Amino acid sequence: CVAFLTKPLHGGLGDAFKLDDTWSWMWSTYALYDPSYQNTEAFGFFIDVGNGWSTIPPGLLMNYAIIYGPYLPITDESSIINPLLVGCIGIASYWQIMYGTYIYFLSFVWNERYKGFAPLEIWTFVGLSNGIWILFPAIGLWACYRMLGEGSFDVLA
Fold first, then answer.
1. End-to-end Cα separation, the chain, in angstroms
2. Distance between CA 67 and CA 88 in Å, rounded?
3. What is the pLDDT of residues 4-29, one digit of tens each?
4. Fewest CB within 10 A of the end CB: N or C in the chain?
């Protein structure tokens, strides 16, 4: 699994985002560490599928706010895109992602899915690959908190 993650991308980083078999290989490689990803009745499967679909609209809203928010005139609370809307939806979305990751880690440890693997493999493959789903949502929560507190998109500038 570590060899898969450290192999060079064909054609550069841009190819990693093409809709080919790269992501299916990633998913199936991760499933070697956690068989719940092969089980469509398991939480691990559904938290990824659910987050994958339910975070698209909030993600698009947040991206719009990051790109255009600092330049939008905030004249009143009835503006279509305003810090209150983006902050509230962002907090809900980032909390969902982070909470799901905490529950996933609990499930992974509780079900002893780490057995049979070297600790370094678990820390690098499971810990780091899921740790980003705690770190970046925590940063997003902080930014949304600031948007709500300041009533502006200045934190995004």
1. 39
2. 18
3. 666 665 555 555 555 556 667 777 77
4. C
